[in-house]
Design a protein that fits this description.
By secondary structure, the chain is α/β, with parallel strands linked by helices. The strands form four sheets. Strands 1-13-2-12-10-11 form a six-stranded parallel β-sheet, sandwiched between helices. Helix 10 links the parallel strand 14 and strand 15. The protein is globular and about 60 Å long. The two termini are 30 Å apart. The structure holds iron/sulfur cluster.
């Protein structure tokens, strides 16, 4: 089980595991690897946990630190106080900004209230913010492909509100207006479907042939890796189950991608209690994955439940190996250092170093 201090558990439950050779039989579970926690989520959740340990005061968190109900409920139990806006926080208090990022306006509001801040924005979201700032300085029209109303999109658009237009998908392409068709760039939310985004971008290119692309992929490594894994599994799965909360963009995308890639049926669940009997009618093989904000304990519970239902032959399907860790937010590192404490997370052992943010 997931114990305190283990923020990125990956242990598999005891049971029958066998090599995936492209064949499935009745009772097979194809288990996606990678799945679950990404480096940005791990960093954000650990930041709240360490802040609760190191500060002798209430730790406020603006918005859900990551989009997962289980994680947020657990941090609430430990004492974190979640708020929607900084004006709900007493002046001078400590607040953590979530992994999805904030607009400069939120930062200003926090300063006006003399709040002390820990910024847990994922460094890969910060990268997109910086791109928006840079292209706005060069006076580009920025077409931000993403979901209007999503916190990350609000934060990125807020970096350059006079230059950014949000493009939700192909249906929005015809509505876009730009000042100079030769000076347009597209950026995107980090957690979109790769295929759907490229469909939108290709339509934008038909309208603006010299449309510039982001300097590097905005859809992050974790989103892409999880989509590649489920695409491999989906054609062999009668039913795909994606563990993730309804407000988790990358989890919802995984469910859609699975269906598009050939799964006969695909459903997202927060936890095993949401399984429905009728989903299993006539099902021989099940594909399982989880969104980037989902602790693996929830997948382990699902595997145990599936075994009870006769799906006990678990075949891991690995399409990538992830070995990335982001260092904790600078403000927190300084506080921990002052108190003689260090980040005890297990460091990556492969080629990739711990990335500084
Ligand atoms: S899904 Fe990607 S962008 Fe979002 S927190 Fe994880 S690594 Fe960062």
């Amino acid at each position: 089980m997931w114990r305190d201090g283990e923020s990125c558990p990956t242990a598999l439950p005891p049971g029958r595991f066998s090599f995936y050779d492209g064949r499935v039989s009745t009772g097979t579970v194809l288990l996606a690897e990678p799945r679950g926690y990404c480096a940005g989520v791990d960093r954000a959740v650990v930041a709240v946990e360490r802040a609760l340990e190191h500060y002798d005061e209430t730790v406020y968190v603006r918005h859900e630190i990551v989009h997962n109900k289980f994680v947020v409920d657990r941090l609430k139990e430990k004492g974190a106080v979640f708020v929607e806006e900084v004006d709900e926080i007493p002046e001078g208090s400590l607040v953590i900004f979530s992994a999805h990022g904030i607009s400069p306006k939120v930062r200003e509001m926090a300063e006006e209230r003399n709040l002390r801040t820990i910024d847990a924005t994922c460094p890969l979201v910060t990268k997109v913010h910086k791109e928006a700032v840079r292209f706005a300085r060069q006076d580009y029209d920025i077409l931000l492909v993403g979901h209007d109303g999503h916190e990350e999109v609000e934060g990125t658009a807020g970096e350059a509100p006079d230059h950014v237009q949000i493009v939700n998908g192909p249906e929005d392409v015809g509505k876009v207006t730009v000042r100079d068709p030769e000076k347009v760039v597209w950026l995107s939310q980090t957690t979109l479907s790769v295929d759907e985004t490229m469909e939108t971008v290709n339509l934008l290119k038909e309208r603006f042939p010299t449309l510039q692309a982001p300097p590097s992929d905005d859809i992050c490594y974790a989103t892409q890796n999880r989509q590649v894994a489920i695409k491999k599994i989906a054609p062999d799965a009668d039913l795909v189950l994606v563990v993730g909360s309804p407000n988790s963009s990358n989890s919802v995308r995984l469910m859609e991608v699975a269906k598009e890639a050939g799964a006969k049926a695909s459903h997202r669940i927060d936890n095993v209690s949401e399984l429905r009997e009728e989903w299993f009618e006539g099902v021989k093989s099940v594909g399982v994955t989880s969104g980037a904000s989902v602790p693996d304990v929830l997948v382990q519970e699902l595997l145990a439940e599936l075994a009870e239902r006769g799906f006990g032959d678990v075949k891991p399907v690995r399409t990538a190996t992830e070995d990335l860790m982001f260092s904790l937010p600078r403000e927190l590192r300084q506080e921990m250092k002052a108190r003689g404490s260090v980040d005890t997370r297990k460091k990556p052992t492969g080629d990739s170093a711990t990335a500084e943010s």
